[in-house]
Write a structure and sequence with these properties.
583 residues; mainly alpha; 2 domains; 22 helices; 0% strand
């Protein structure tokens, strides 16, 4: 039976073996890494330890000040400080519950090792425990980096008992496991209704929108002010989080009681919380084992319905074919473009990366529309030529946003055009396709959707802001030429850093090349925007006509963009033949 345990294999020993193998793999990779990577790992670990110590020292000093008698004469923060453990434990539980959904979806349903683990002679429960720990460990470490210094600083500032510190760690671990177990059950329940890839696509879209909202939160709260009444309400809200009916409050009150020497109340609160957390994790683990194993067994059995055979229709007379027009592109190039388009549409990793620039463009277009594209001449005492140039720069804001959207899209479509083939690249490599046609197909597959979205955004934004026909006619060739050069730059770095052995989509392009390529693409966009828009702004400021400045900008910027569109891919044609080869 698949997934059956070995005769003497226990859950604890199998879990430890799986986790230890993962540690050995990580150590082996680090041991065979380059010296630069080893030094970087050591420096990063030292920085994290230093950050942890600095955060603990800062929390200790701040909480000691909040407990000082001088401050107590002005405002009493006793209830807020007593509710601090409850607030942190509640936030930790909810954070792990939310963030573990996508991580566990990837680990349980989209990973490539689950079939092997489910068929191995180890307990299925050990597989789930090891997967849960591996999935939540990065988020748990990041959570501890923020929560442990505050809680330890609270204990140090109040002189709590030594048992306070290990129990804080134990509570965080138990609550993290309980939250991860609930998240795993939720994942399996959702996947039974919706395919895992569709769920991942929806999560990617929600994550892109959430990240955008968070990035723009400063604009929403810029004009908000907090007076004394609102501060008091906020303190009351934090104190109410310590309600006696909340299981998180049982743990928080238990920690405070343990620190102040109230043994009975501390033991009761901590005991109830630990029992509840362990019980939730055990029940969730058993439910995951049953739900996942039954679904995996059905998938291996292949219980899909076979399509019914359709009755053969009577043959129709074939009409005489008209002479076909010569195709615009070779058939090999067209076939590769169609193939890449299908991959982009079906692959779950592309949805968020293609939706994020659209959301960013819409938000910034709304912000630009609210400003009206005008500069108030009454603000400041700048010279007239400067105010005129600033007004012109705002008028070209739509072009800048369109280029920004294109840069984000091409960072995925262009730089990862070869890498997203993965291990299946040998099919293309053995096909009768020359490097020139392959490079042309990859360039067009990245350029066409980016051009359509960039030009559509520019047209809609210009119409909404009433920028005028001349501005739109100038912006259309600017966007088309600038994006063509960006395709060449990104495609060249994509060939240089192509990684066909990736497991994580974030590692499609090798680290150093991907980082340099991102900076190179950003620098190109800044330069090409300066070449296009600079003359269009400076010539009218010096007394010339707007049309003359725009014409000079199109010529100068167009030449620079065409060179970047053709030269970098041409230099990389020789490396196209060697992609995927060792050495």
């Amino acid at each position: 039976m698949s997934g059956a345990a070995a005769p003497h294999a226990s859950v604890a020993s199998s879990t430890w073996k799986l986790l230890w193998l993962r540690v050995r793999i990580w150590a082996s990779v680090l041991r065979h890494a380059t010296l630069r990577r080893k030094i970087g790992t050591v420096v990063l670990a030292a920085l994290l330890v230093g950050l942890l110590v600095a955060a603990f020292a800062g929390s200790w000093a701040l909480l000691s000040f909040l407990r000082s008698p001088e401050l107590a004469q002005a405002v009493d923060l006793t209830q807020v400080l007593e509710a601090l453990p409850t607030v942190i434990l509640t936030g930790a539980f909810l954070t792990i519950l939310v963030t573990s959904f996508g991580v566990l979806l990837q680990s349980l349903y989209l990973a490539r090792d689950m079939d092997f683990l489910m068929a191995a002679p180890i307990p299925v429960r050990a597989v789930f425990i090891s997967k849960l720990i591996q999935a939540i460990l990065p988020n748990f470490a990041l959570l501890c980096l923020f929560s442990l210094p505050v809680l330890f600083g609270l204990g140090a500032s109040a002189g709590y008992h030594m048992l306070f510190y290990p129990l804080v760690i134990l509570l965080l671990v138990c609550m993290t496991l309980a939250a991860a177990g609930l998240s795993a059950v939720l994942v399996m329940g959702v996947v039974r209704l919706v395919p895992a890839r569709r769920v991942a696509e929806a999560l990617a879209a929600v994550g892109a929108a959430a990240s955008l909202i968070c990035s723009q939160s400063g604009n929403f709260t810029r004009n908000m002010t907090f007076d004394a009444r609102q501060t008091t309400q906020l303190m009351d809200l934090l104190a109410r989080a310590n309600a006696p009916w909340s299981p998180f409050a049982w743990a928080g009150r238990g920690l405070i009681g343990l620190g102040t020497g109230q043994g009975a109340s501390a033991a009761l609160g901590l005991g109830l919380t630990l029992v509840l957390a362990v019980g939730i994790f055990a029940v969730a683990l058993r439910a995951c084992e049953v739900l996942y194993h039954t679904g995996w067994s059905q998938m291996q059995a292949g219980t899909q319905r076979r399509p019914r055979a359709r009755p053969h229709a009577a043959p129709r007379a074939t009409p005489a074919r008209r002479p076909a027009l010569p195709p615009l592109l070779p058939r090999a190039v067209s076939a590769l473009i169609v193939k890449d388009a299908l991959v982009l549409r079906r692959d779950l990793r592309n949805l968020s990366q293609l939706m994020t620039p659209l959301i960013v463009g819409i938000v910034y277009a709304i912000m630009l529309a609210r400003s009206g594209g005008q500069v108030d001449p009454g603000r400041g005492e700048a010279p007239e030529w400067f105010m005129h140039s600033a007004s012109q720069m705002l008028a070209y804001g739509n072009i800048g946003i369109a280029l920004f959207i294109g840069w984000i899209m091409l960072s995925r479509l262009g730089m990862m055009a070869f890498s997203h083939e993965g291990r299946a690249y040998w099919l293309i490599k053995t096909a009768p396709v020359t490097p020139v046609r392959l490079m042309l197909a990859k360039a067009l597959a990245a350029y066409v959707p980016t051009l359509v979205i960039g030009e559509a955004f520019l047209a809609v934004a210009s119409l909404l802001q009433r920028a005028g026909a001349s501005m739109m006619l100038f912006g259309m060739p600017v966007v088309a030429l600038a994006l063509a050069g960006a395709v060449g730059v990104n495609l060249a770095f994509g060939v240089a850093g192509a990684n066909l052995e990736w497991e994580d989509p974030r590692h499609m392009v090798r680290g150093s090349v991907g980082c340099i390529g991102s900076f190179a693409g950003m620098a190109y966009m800044a330069l090409v925007a300066a070449f296009f828009i600079g003359p269009a702004v400076l010539v009218p400021a010096l007394g010339g006509s707007v049309g003359l400045g725009q014409a000079i900008g199109v010529v100068v910027g167009g030449m620079f963009a065409l060179v970047c569109a053709l030269l970098p891919p041409y230099l990389m044609l020789g490396r196209v033949r060697r992609i995927g080869e060792v050495g």
